[in-house]
Amino acid sequence: MGRTYFVEEVIGQYLSDLSTKAKPYVTGLLIGQCSPQRDYVIWAVRTPPKEEKENDIGPSTLASIDEEWITTHASQVSRMLPGGLLVLGVFIVTTPELSKDSQNALRKLIFSVEKSLAKRRLWKPAEEEVSDRAALHICSSTKKVVCRTYDVQDPKSSAKPADWKYQSTLSASWLALDCTVNVNIHIPLLATSPNHDLEKNTKNGLNRWSKQIEDSVFLINGQVKDDDTELLEGQKKLRGNTQPSTQFSDVKVLTQLSQGSSRRSTATVQVCTGSINLRGAVKCRAYLHNNKPKVKEAVQALKRDIINTLSDRCEILFEDLIINEGPHKKNFEREYHVLPQRLFVPVAGSSVMLSDYKFGDEATGEIQERFVEMLDQSVQAEDIHIAEEMNTVDICPVTDNTDDAQLKQLQKATLLVKLQQNMGVVIAAAVAVFASIFSFNYFSD
């Protein structure tokens, strides 16, 4: 039996209104939430038009679909989704003449989009997680809708039929979980890392930090709840709402300070050229359908939002640095940068808000333009809510006051310590000697 997609009713009108007059086809993304029983589609977003060169204008076929442009759009959109929401699939509206080729094109797009999104994730999908993604085709003439799914975990996956059911006020009363996470992450820049690769080092550091978030304890409204408990157990559920209304849960995140006796801990000495420090407090939010959601679904959605929001900000910052300073910056000096702030924007007819990020000097008009371009949504300036204070990135180089002989001596000593790292007394003595001679930073795993 195939999956069932419950779809916000206004999406049907949105898809019908997409015109194929300028081009024989229009592509786009389906956004929503998966659950073990059913899937929910709450937004559809067309692919932004790309400026065409005069020489490129001519008869279009599905073979001319720009995969890279669509996957880039998917990556940008995924940054603007709070926890619990994801790109559920792709759609294409075509003229009748192109209908027979639509499924092949959709299949190719689904796997390309998923591959692009998976590269950016610092978390791994759970084994029991839904991995089917929707491929929706609409004929511009007959308005006929055909929905199929592909398993993105199986490259050889074949199409399976799926039900596409419209429902009014589908996301009018979803549940929301809110938390603020204090961040103080220290990331060493190893001497072996070529050209001070800040972005790569940062991602490695965030990867380690993400594992701490995965192992954290989550208090929902002050309580630790069993994974299989219903999220709303003991609470009154909002019923019969036709107006957008959100039921919020306050969440506290308790990060474990020790790894426990079951894990082996060893000390290592690393030659570093500096460090990156991420400090601040980030606002995190996840949304969940109101059809008896489980605690484990809620916690998983919020964990991913915590990890994604910091990772996305760092990506945005490095993209901004490349644009303003160039990709090959040679000077490595101490720098302070401000991470972009998170903001939330309500959407008409839904209790689920969209998210985005802004730098301090970014005008409101630029944010509004981005929502129109990326999500095809008009946003009022007064509806843009900045959720937090500024968070900083401190890039600290170590003063280069050692000559080559000293560096070689340190590297030899480091190798010796690594060979003897199971002997705690030797490590302690070695570190003490190093600390008295050289001004390097040492870190413990």
In short:
Helices cover 29% and strands 28% of the residues. Mean pLDDT is 82; it is low at 413-445.
Outline, from the CA principal axes? globular
Helix content: 25-40%
Number of helices: 8
- pLDDT under 50 segments (min length 5)? 413-445
Separation of the first and last Cα atoms: 48 Å
* Series of H and E elements: EHEEHEHEEEEEHEEEHEEEHEEHH
Number of domains: 2
Classify the secondary structure makeup into a structural class: alpha+beta
Biggest β-sheet, characterized?
Answer: 8 strands, mixed
Strands in their spatial order, largest beta sheet? 7-6-5-4-2-3-1-8
How many extended strands? 17
Mean pLDDT: 82
Portion in beta strands = 25-35%
Radius of gyration: 25 Å
Keywords: Membrane, Transmembrane, Transmembrane helix
Function: May play a role in the trafficking of a subset of G-protein coupled receptors.
Subcellular location: Membrane
GO cellular component, one term: membrane
